[in-house]
Design brief:
- This protein is mainly alpha-helical.
- The protein has ten helices and no strands.
- α1 crosses α2 (38-45), α5 (87-102) packs across α10 and α8 runs antiparallel to α10 (187-205).
- The longest helix is centred in the N-terminal third of the chain and has 30 residues, at 2-31.
- InterPro entries: Homeodomain-like_sf, HTH-type_TetR-like_transc_reg, HTH_TetR, Tet_transcr_reg_TetR-rel_C_sf, TetR_C_Proteobacteria.
- It comes from Nocardiopsis tropica.
- Keywords: DNA-binding.
Length: 217
């Protein structure tokens, strides 16, 4: 019985947390970071002020949670590195996970909030980069380094390679949404975009397939 009550309380706590995160994201997007009070977030989330302040004593703490949730919610093991040994399979796994991640409405909302508030609140940009983008990027970089060390890929600069790979996907899945409210590509089109990015990476980084440097004139 005690275990059931404990599990019930945990579910309630998680539901309240999710309600707070959702309400805050919508309010930050609609009213701006500066124009949103924690009291208004509590009201919109349907929780008491004491409940909200206990979890998030400041707006900065709340935004930090939004960043973390945006990069992790519904992403499962999106940041987990595939096992080395099959470069094509590993890149495809990473690419499709990333497309799912950045294609969610919550991620678009997060980027819009950060971009809109960046001139007045540069710390929001730092949170987005350090807590969200950087850990994910680093996991991809480490995967490419592992494949390179194992001899399965020719990736002498894993930082550049990770930037190029994720950039190709984000340029189709995420960034058009920032400017085009009706941008909603079909799942098959997103799949094809990821596969094209994988093929580009394979052409560049499969051992023995790197183009020879141009001779100096």
């Amino acid at each position: 019985m005690a275990a059931e009550l404990s599990a019930h309380h945990r579910r309630l706590a998680q539901q309240k947390r999710e309600a707070i995160i959702t309400a805050a994201t919508e309010l930050f997007l609609d009213r701006g970071y500066d124009g949103t009070s924690l009291a208004r977030v509590a009201e919109a989330a349907g929780v008491s002020k004491s409940t909200l302040f206990k979890r998030f004593p400041t707006k900065a703490a709340l935004f930090e949670a939004i960043v973390t949730e945006s990069w992790q919610r519904d992403a499962g093991d999106a940041a987990a590195r595939p096992q080395t040994g099959d470069l094509r399979s590993g890149l495809a796994t990473i690419g499709h996970r990333y497309a799912d991640l950045v294609g969610r409405p919550g991620m678009t909302a997060l980027f819009r909030i950060v971009i809109a508030e960046l001139p007045r609140f540069p710390e929001l940009g730092r949170m987005q980069f350090q807590l969200g983008k950087l850990p994910y990027f680093t996991s991809v970089q480490h995967y490419l380094e592992a494949e390179h060390e194992a001899g399965n890929a020719d990736v002498p600069d894993a930082v550049s390679a990770a930037n190029q790979f994720l950039g190709m996907i984000a340029n189709y899945v995420l960034w058009p949404r920032m400017l085009l409210t009706d941008w909603n590509p079909a799942a098959s089109d997103i799949h094809d975009a990821v596969e094209q990015a994988v093929q580009t990476m394979l052409a560049r980084h499969t051992p023995g397939r790197r183009p020879d440097p141009k001779p100096e004139r």
